[in-house]
Design a protein that fits this description.
mainly alpha; Four Helix Bundle (Hemerythrin (Met), subunit A); 5 helices
Amino acid sequence: MKPKRRTPKKPSSDAHDAALRKHLIELLRSRGAHADFDAAVDGLPEGLRGARVKELPFTPWRLLEHLRLAQWDILEFSRNPKHESPQWPQGYWPAGDAPPNSAAWDASVTQFRRALTEMEKLVRDSSNDLFAPLPHGQGQTLLREALLVADHNSYHLGQLIMLRRLLGAWKEER
């Protein structure tokens, strides 16, 4: 008599949900193939934070502030039905090429990290349905917004790292 073949059990939807949330957090934190925020901003000399490279339309400061502003906007849209996004495009970019002082740079870095942590909290909270359309949106979901943050951050962090290389402020051993 031939033994019965056992069909492996499918993971529960709870296990799938937990795995998806874990992967989203890793993606938001730039794990894997994505650029890491801390590596991109840490150790950048103060004198290069407003530096331009010919033919590029941004500086490290402009990229940092754009990252901060866009991430903040996506976070607030995700959790606050009364949130009003800044005017595009001027509301997503700083006025100047350089931070007014080193405290402004440090504050922007801190605010970026804080908003990223808040987005992670939304994703981690299993009472938030990742697939449910946001009631105040036009079909957007928390999943979409978390992916948007990860995608946008990755894109601009890559630009920041490229800019640091061109400015001679990037060490390959990172």
